[in-house]
Amino acid sequence: MINNYSFIFLNRLVVLKNNTSVYDQFFYQGINIIRGDNGTGKSTIMDLIYYGLGAELSEWTAEPLSCDKVFLEVSCNTGIYTLSREIEQTGKSPMLICEGDYLSSTKTETQWLKYINRRSDERHSYSQQLFDMMNLPQHKNNDSANLTMHQILRLMYLDQITAPTKILRYDTNYDNANIRQAIGEYLLGLDDLDIHELRQQLIELERDFAKIDGELKAIYKLLSKGQQDFTADKLHAEILAVESEIYQSLQKKEEIRFKTKKELDDMQKEQAKLILMEINKYTEKLEKIHVQSSFLSNEIIDSTLFLQSIDYRIKSLLESKTTNESLGSLNFKYCPACLTKIETIQQDNICGLCKSPKHEDSTKKSYLHMLNELNFQKRESEKILQFNKNLLDEIKTKIPELESLLSISKLNYKDYLQSNSAMESQISEISNRIGFLESKHQNLKERLEFFANIEALVKEKQQLIVKTSEVKDALAAKKEKTKNRLLDVCSQLETTTMNIVKMDLGFEKDFENPEEFEFSFPRDKMWLNGKSKFSASSMVLLKNSFRLATLVESTKDINYRFPRFLLIDNIEDKGMMPSRSHNFQNIMVEMCEELENPYQLIYTTSMISPKLEGGNYCRGIFYKKGTHTLELNKI
């Protein structure tokens, strides 16, 4: 029946320094206890197991960091293997894996296979390999959606550094609500393996949408209001109109060569009048725009200064309100107008100055009324300011083209005055017009390309909206499909946790007869009777109870992916009383002894229960103060 469950059990742990063993200990299925006084290196052994199984550990103490390698002989679904990792400060060293026990692995060099801690196109990561060895499912087509050994070990290892209010081991590099939820759902078998992938897709889609939406907003902010209405079709139409005018101008240029001198002279006179009219028209428009631009600039400055004054008045009003609420109203001894001494009235509800009745509600209403009025003025002024800014931007965009047209008209008129013949002046004018049209044509083509890019972004944004909606629908369908299992698993875990907590010795009132227990992997929190915080030792007990419940339920539920392996470092952490620690250890052993399927629990304690000391569950000696689990004195 064991092969129906994913599992990994530690058989032997060996730590080497200078090719000499400084720790060599066998472990067995079931309960394993490492005990000793505080400061003797029990946590060091737990960290080395955690690291040897594939975690990234960068916060080392001096003793393990001075060692070279750690070897773990493990049993898992597909057989017995030996894992080896060099001890490095970064905690990201590769893993060597050899099929067979530790003793046989020391006799071969060719059977070891090397796996890096990150996936590559050429080779599995050690996480992928270990998952395969435990028969744990993985995504076949999306490696980025797969969890790693480092991540799932966060639920399998209770350390002393992580705050007792947290469910998972702390992680500064790979921690967010999505990952925490994925870890919980994966190990408890709450998803069908696609939910995490869909969440990852949704995150990527929303990230891409935000990027494109930001680009479009930035573009629209730079464009004037009129330019935002442009489309590729409108620009195409304008380009065709310009091309048509260029063609007509070229034809007109050819026709001039065949006209009589009188016709050309008459045309020149008429054209000169038209050009003068154009010059006057463009000059008037430019002057009008410059006047309007100057007016709007002044209005913007005035509005900005007015808004600043309103902000100051609001700030002063709020300070006045705070002062009035703190100190009360002021009493004047002399009239502020004529300096005559004022008769004092010892009544709190009468104004000391004007002798009118005072009402506290009236004062508050006055402050509120003035504040509302100022806020209204501010909102209206901000609207006017933004309108004027937009209008000024729109006006300024018209200036370059008008200046170009005015320059061309002046150049044409100059050519008329300086030309030796009517034909020459006519051709010169048409040539100038053609030059302007060609420049405009090039500008329109550039704008067409620019707006085509905008349309492409808009199209991509719409596609992302559709794809996001599809992924959200698929995610909702998957969640609905697994809803019943979620309720069953959570209900059973919560019940088992409360049953363990009930057996505490009465150190915490809420533990005596708890009515409800809840947990959330995304929020990384637990609640008992609606509370998320108790004393530090009670939080440790609650956290240990939840993890023990997870181990217990994993041996009963075939759909769990939790590898039936649990590390608990220092049962009595955070000042727990010896009697309370002894009681919890006895509870753990009694519950685990009743389990029908294989499991492995390794825990450390400095206060081992008298019932357990010297029994079959103890591994190694009791490390007394002054000794250390790593025998570095052998080197």
| H/I helix tally | 17
Widest beta sheet: strand line-up: 2-1-4-5-6-7
Sheet of most strands: 6 strands, antiparallel
Intertermini distance? 45 Å
Pfam family, one: AAA_23
InterPro entries: P-loop_NTPase (IPR027417), Rad50/SbcC_AAA (IPR038729)
GO molecular function: ATP hydrolysis activity
Protein name: AAA family ATPase
Report on this structure.
This protein has 635 residues and is an alpha/beta fold. Helices cover 55% and strands 11% of the residues. The protein has 17 helices and twelve strands. The strands form three sheets. Strands 2-1-4-5-6-7 form a six-stranded antiparallel β-sheet, covered by helices on one side. α6 (177-187) packs antiparallel against α7 (194-222). The longest helix is centred in the middle third of the chain and has 67 residues, at 261-327. It starts with 7 loop residues before the first strand and ends in a 30-residue tail after the last strand. The model has no long low-confidence stretch (mean pLDDT 85). InterPro entries: P-loop_NTPase, Rad50/SbcC_AAA. It comes from Thiothrix subterranea. GO terms for molecular function: ATP hydrolysis activity. It holds the Pfam family AAA_23. This is AAA family ATPase.
